[in-house]
Design goal:
160 residues, 8-stranded antiparallel β-barrel, 1 helix, 51% strand
Length: 160
């Protein structure tokens, strides 16, 4: 319960500070699935840098806070909610497609996210206030031990 309260406080701070720190903000949510096909809910809030109106591909910094709910399972250790804080870069193309890579820190370990540091890769499309993306979080077996099932999610949401 304490981790959830801290995560909510961090998300409120991000929502409050986003307009001052960046020119863009999005809120996305959707289902997340592990390699063992167990689904749960995920929600993310991101802030990102300037987006010039020159219709060219460009790089922008991005910061993200997120939460992945726990799962009740007897086989895998997935019964912990995980808070994620990440930062990295996003490449936005002129046709509204984007790809981003971020280094993420996690609040706890599970069989899906088996270390405190993970890679968070996203590919998606945005236009106007709408955004949709496919996101994968994993440590690529480079850090830590355990099963490392990873989290793959389909997220949709709104941009401000």
């Amino acid at each position: 319960m304490r981790n959830m309260q801290l995560g909510l406080v961090a998300m409120v701070c991000l929502l409050t500070c986003a307009p001052a720190l960046a020119t863009g903000f999005d809120l996305t949510a959707g289902p997340s699935v592990t390699a063992s096909e167990r689904t749960t809910a995920a929600i993310f809030a991101s802030v990102f840098g300037e987006q010039p109106d020159d219709n060219r591909t460009h790089f922008e910094p991005i910061g993200t806070l997120g939460w992945i709910d726990s799962r009740d399972t007897r086989k895998d250790d997935l019964d912990h909610a995980v808070f994620v804080a990440a930062g990295g870069v996003r490449i936005l193309a002129a046709n509204h497609w984007f790809v981003s890579e971020q280094l993420a820190a996690t609040s706890t370990r599970t069989d899906a996210l088996s270390s405190r540091f993970e890679f968070m890769t996203s590919v998606g499309w945005q236009h106007g206030r709408f955004i949709v993306m496919l996101r994968h979080i994993s440590n690529a077996h480079l850090i830590g031990g355990g099963k490392n099932l990873g989290e793959t999610m389909l997220l949709a949401g709104v941009r401000f």
